[in-house]
Design brief:
alpha/beta, 11 helices
Length: about 300
């Protein structure tokens, strides 16, 4: 079986749930695809610096995928409505039987993904999607009325209890796949309409630099993070936000190393690691809010 991996905001090969399952399912190779959608990015007010960062991350991802014998193909779409047909055509051309991707929770993205799933399944393909952006999937943390939490503190308490009980898994880098006679597509270095004045060397892209920044943070800064984080003039934060946002590092990898630094605990009063874990839980909370109240991603 040959599998198709659709990359979006998950530009890494380590601890990538959809890629992990695509590689463990396939016995006839894995093909990766990324769809470039400048008009959609403009509609969503995507910053030029984010697009340039993503493009540089794609170049790094392509190199990582090469080591796994996974070609990265590039497609272009002017709107989300074109994407189901693009993926169906690609799957048919490459003789892939299954599509894998990680879920996105914003309203337009979730509607697009549902249309993709419906279209491909109508043509006999199987589609598998995963809650890779979060540790506890939306709907898992609810109150006694089985409703989503609206306030952070009770959500945090329930989240800590749930994760301590259930645990979480950090997926290893996949093994090399069957070599396919299929070359990478060329990657653009620029996208018209998205020019950033920010120097690229300030924010080098890719999962290797993201992992280095995480390691540097926990070894050099996390102990004193609680008192030092509120001084903007000082370099006391993790500087991982763009890497998490683009999926160049996983939330599970961040939580795991912070927990290890925190004596194996998810929460320890006033420790720097606990303060940072608290911020990771805020990130989880907002993704649950996106699913429970879609209007928040509709300018409402």
């Amino acid at each position: 079986m040959r599998c198709l991996m659709w990359f979006r905001e998950d530009l890494r090969v380590t601890d990538n749930m959809a890629l992990h399952y695509a590689c463990t399912t396939a016995n006839d190779g894995v093909i990766a695809v990324f769809i470039i959608t400048p008009e959609v990015w403009q509609k969503h007010d995507t910053a030029a610096c984010k697009v340039e960062f993503m493009l540089r991350g794609l170049h790094e991802l392509q190199a990582e995928l090469s080591q796994l014998n996974i070609p990265l193909l590039i497609r272009y779409a002017t709107n989300d409505q074109q994407i189901p047909a693009i993926l169906l055509k690609l799957a048919q051309q490459t003789h892939t039987a299954r599509l894998f991707f990680n879920k996105q929770y914003e309203i337009d993205e979730s509607r697009r993904d549902q249309k993709v799933t419906t279209r491909l399944e109508q043509h006999g393909l199987k589609v598998r999607s995963y809650h890779d952006q979060v540790i506890a999937e939306p709907g898992y943390i609810v109150n006694q009325k089985s409703e989503y939490y609206k306030i952070f503190t009770p959500f945090k308490k329930a989240w800590l209890t749930a994760i301590q009980t259930r645990g979480y898994e950090v997926y290893p880098k996949p093994k090399p796949q069957k070599l396919l006679i299929l070359a990478h597509d060329p990657l653009p270095k620029k996208i018209n309409g998205f020019h950033s004045e920010i120097a690229p060397e300030l924010w080098p892209a890719g999962e290797q630099i993201a992992q280095k920044r995480l390691n540097d943070f926990v070894t050099q800064k996390i102990t004193d993070y609680q008192p030092n984080r509120d001084f903007p003039a000082k370099n006391n934060t993790s500087r991982l936000s763009p890497y998490l946002n683009s999926g160049m590092i996983s939330i599970r990898s961040c939580l795991k190393i912070a927990q290890e630094t925190n004596n194996g605990l998810l929460f320890l009063d006033d420790s720097g690691a606990s303060t940072w874990i608290n911020e990771l839980i805020w990130r989880e909370f907002y993704r649950h809010i996106l699913v429970a109240f879609p209007r928040v991603s509709m300018h409402r």
